[in-house]
Amino acid sequence: MEITEVRIKLMEEAGERLQGFCSITLDNCFVVRDLKIIEGSSGPFVAMPSRKLTAHCPGCGCKNHLRAAYCNQCGGRLRDDRVAKDEEGRAKLYADIAHPINPACRELIQERVIRAFREEIERSKLPGYVSSYDDFDEDLVMERPPRKPRMASEKHTVERPAAVRVVSERPVGEKTKIETAEPEPRPPHKRIAQPANGAPASKRDAFGAGIW
């Protein structure tokens, strides 16, 4: 097996244990992504890509992370003894997705990645540096379409209820002038003439009776 290509993505924040991500290509035909370069007590080392371990809730059967104290589905209390431990007694919260199965392969990957990591640090100091790592998360950022520019002087007409209407010709950024239209005068009330006494009730027009 030969590691034919290594791509490094350096972390922007300095001082963190996570120094960067990398991907390796094996024999020009197989790629392993999301290896992590972590700063340890004796220098940087390579951590294999991993996933979080989960456990089923005894009540509803929903999967929960091993650090969760309550179920995300039913809210029931989860047992504390469901976390497995490794040979050194530490809680095993993650499992490697891809990893070497012998020390020789691990040492080969470690040496090749760390060498490429130090070379990437030197290249990052040069002007115009661009990382060669393929970050698919950044490719998913959608760009908004550009907004149509507004003319410097534009007529705005907005219909309002009652008798208010906004009509103005203004440059962009100025306040809108509101003009209140004068209401039309209403005619005075007219008194309904009462029919003479003795007139037939059928000929009386009672519409509007009593309204002044």
Word description of this protein:
This protein is of the alpha+beta class and 212 residues long. The protein contains 2 helices and 11 strands; from the N terminus they run ββββββββααβββ. The strands form 4 sheets. The chain has a 4-stranded antiparallel β-sheet, covered by helices on one side. The chain is flat, with a radius of gyration of 39 Å. The termini are far apart.
Task: Set down the secondary structure blueprint.
Elements: E1 3-10, E2 18-26, E3 30-40, E4 43-47, E5 50-52, E6 54-56, E7 63-65, E8 94-96, H1 103-124, H2 136-139, E9 153-159, E10 164-171, E11 179-180
Antiparallel strand pairs: 1-2, 2-3, 3-4, 5-8, 6-7, 9-10, 10-11
**Architecture per CATH nomenclature, i.e. the level-2 architecture of the domain at 1-49 and 97-133:** 2-Layer Sandwich
- Helix segment tally: 2
Q: Kindly state the percentage of residues in helix.
A: 10-25%
Number of strand elements: 11
Query: Taking Cα atoms only, what radius of gyration do you get, to the nearest Å?
Result: 39 Å
Strand content: 25-35%
Strand order within the widest beta sheet: 1-2-3-4
CATH superfamily of the domain at 1-49 and 97-133: Stage V sporulation protein G
Question: What is the SS-derived class?
Answer: alpha+beta
> What best-fitting shape do the alpha-carbon axes yield?
flat
Distance between the termini: 105 Å
The CATH topology assignment of the domain at 1-49 and 97-133 is Arylsulfatase, C-terminal domain
The low-confidence runs, each spanning 5 or more residues with pLDDT under 50, are none
Mean pLDDT: 75
Largest sheet: 4 strands, antiparallel
